[in-house]
Write a structure and sequence with these properties.
Length: about 260
């Protein structure tokens, strides 16, 4: 039923092409907290881990960031690691470094070979986007270009443009996350995802945030979203559901739909 492409690493789909992939966030503020989170999350067998480095107290110390990324990667084994600095404009934590320093950190982390995917927002300066795109490609790291709106759900045309823009800017994956105020907003997001999945040549990730948005985290894959986020130890955005609940719903719905 889904039309979106699987997210690939090194020419192979993650988790053997499982659809959707389930990603759990890591939001520890210290390396010890991250390792404690991992001890809780890993037994739940997520398909992808996302390290939200904007929560990390030592974000201004790039060697410490690389050390932590390497520690996460070693503990995670074959589970891919998505590296994300979410900006305050799009719902992230306040950090002590400026955008030029963020780009330098992104470059160093990609070159360290300790991550598999990296997230950067489309709202950033086009020169910075091009730089992140180039360093990701040079180091065989997949680039997720993302758009987040924590106040509302834009109309269908705007959402379609976001998916298209990500593709045009060189993303390997396009991500759109918006805030739903009512069920109509959820329908808008799912419709935009479905239409984009028919037109875009890259994998898509989409979700609505907030209580109504939980529906998209459970069922968005049926409309073309290749990955969904779930709580393993701690949430990183409104509306995320526990990974155990998500897996239960996925198993029931996919069995009913006849998906393999």
């Amino acid at each position: 039923m889904h039309t979106s492409r699987p997210i690939e690493l090194h020419g192979q789909p993650i988790a053997g092409g499982k659809f959707p992939l389930v990603c759990t966030p890591l939001v520890g503020r210290t390396l010890d907290q991250l390792m404690t989170e991992l001890a809780t999350v890993l037994p739940k067998q997520p398909d992808v881990l996302e390290w939200r480095v904007d929560f990390f107290e030592a974000i201004g110390n790039t060697p410490a960031v690389i050390t932590a990324a390497q520690a996460i990667k070693q503990a995670a084994g074959n589970i891919p690691l998505l590296f994300t600095r979410r900006s305050t404009v799009e719902g992230g934590e306040k950090i002590v470094i400026n955008e030029a320093q963020v780009i330098a950190m992104y470059t160093a982390v990609c070159e360290s070979k300790s991550i598999d995917l990296i997230d950067y927002e489309m709202a950033n300066d086009s020169t910075n986007i091009a730089q992140v795109c180039a360093v990701a490609k040079a180091n065989d790291v997949k680039l997720v270009l993302s758009y987040h709106n924590f106040s509302s759900t834009p109309n269908l045309e705007t959402l379609a443009t976001k998916f298209l823009t990500a593709e045009q800017l060189g993303a390997d994956v396009a991500k759109v996350a918006v805030m739903s105020r009512d069920p109509d907003d959820v329908v808008t997001l799912l419709t935009a995802t479905r239409e984009a999945s028919k037109k875009r040549r890259i994998p898509l990730i989409s979700m609505s945030m907030g209580p109504h948005g939980a529906l998209t985290r459970l069922f968005g894959w049926a409309f073309g979203s290749s990955l969904t986020f779930a709580v393993g130890a701690a949430s990183s955005a409104p509306g995320q559901v526990p990974i155990e609940d998500l897996n239960t719903v996925l198993a029931i719905v996919q069995k009913s739909m006849g998906d393999k």
